[in-house]
């Protein structure tokens, strides 16, 4: 009789059960490790094969993207890449107003009125008094003024209905237009006026979001400078440095050679 069987016969039933459980666990662990190693080996071979095919110029080989910093920093489709970055934020940070303000900036540049409206509504529900939200709302109204004729009637009706609860008048009822929006944006009579909010409005004015308004821009900068005299954003540009005086000409070089 083998020695192993003799050992089993000498064990108590409880100890024999523990031993068999231990053996089963060890066998199961060995099988799992073997399967894991096999998967790793298969993936390694697939990656190696794909790289070889790419080096040999196989057109059917999967392309492996290179992580080149300069290429990533200069995307050919920055707005589409921004949307890819925005999607997880809208899922994981939907309770932050900056997420929806960022969404508005993207859709504003893509000229998507319904998505602009959606972003403004979500931001409005989170903080209706946010300074950047007011700027976005005014820019949205200005955009509507310029693009109303090209909007679908159903889209215009939806915007009319949804924008009114946020303090906006109907598209068809706006008579003051861009001038009123500009006056509201540049007003400093609100109690929560801040340097950051004024800087955002100033950037929008300089970017032409409210159309040509050079006089209003200068007046707004002066008013902000009076309100926040130590803020660098509203200080006048430093005068250009004077050009360095030209070096005097060397008389020895300018003298005509004597005739021999």
From TrEMBL:
Keywords, in A-Z order: Repeat, TPR repeat
Single GO cellular component term: NatA complex
Coiled coil: none
Superkingdom classification of source: Eukaryota
Tagged with keyword Repeat: yes
Organism: Chrysodeixis includens (Soybean looper)
Protein name: Uncharacterized protein
Chain residue ranges for the region called Disordered: 18-63, 237-260
Low complexity composition-biased segments: 246-260
InterPro entries attached to this UniProt entry: NatA_aux_su
Matches recorded under Pfam families: NatA_aux_su (PF12569)
PANTHER family recorded: N(ALPHA)-ACETYLTRANSFERASE 15_16, ISOFORM A, N-TERMINAL ACETYLTRANSFERASE-RELATED
Basic residues bias: start-end ranges: 19-28
């Amino acid at each position: 009789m083998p020695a192993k069987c003799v050992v089993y016969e000498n064990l108590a039933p409880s100890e024999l059960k523990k031993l068999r459980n231990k053996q089963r666990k060890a066998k199961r662990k060995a099988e799992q490790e073997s399967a894991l190693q096999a998967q790793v080996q298969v993936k390694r071979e697939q990656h190696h094969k794909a790289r070889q095919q790419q080096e040999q110029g196989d057109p059917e080989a999967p392309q492996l993207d290179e992580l080149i910093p300069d290429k990533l920093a200069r995307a050919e489709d920055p707005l589409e890449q921004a949307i890819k970055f925005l999607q997880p934020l809208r899922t994981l940070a939907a309770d932050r107003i900056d997420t929806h303000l960022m969404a508005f900036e993207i859709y504003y540049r893509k000229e998507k009125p319904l998505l602009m409206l959606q972003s403004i509504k979500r931001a409005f529900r989170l903080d209706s008094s946010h300074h950047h939200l007011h700027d976005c709302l005014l820019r949205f109204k200005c955009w509507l003024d310029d693009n109303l004729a090209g909007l679908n009637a159903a889209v215009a009706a939806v915007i009319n209905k949804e924008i009114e609860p946020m303090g906006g008048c109907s598209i068809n009822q706006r008579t003051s237009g861009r001038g009123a929006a500009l006056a509201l944006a540049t007003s400093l009579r609100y109690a929560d006026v801040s340097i950051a909010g004024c800087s955002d409005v100033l950037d929008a004015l300089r970017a032409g979001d409210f159309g040509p308004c050079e006089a209003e821009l200068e007046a707004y900068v002066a008013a902000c400078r009076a309100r926040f005299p130590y803020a660098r954003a509203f200080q006048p540009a430093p005068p250009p440095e004077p050009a360095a005086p030209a070096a005097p000409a060397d008389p020895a070089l300018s003298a005509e050679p004597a005739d021999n």
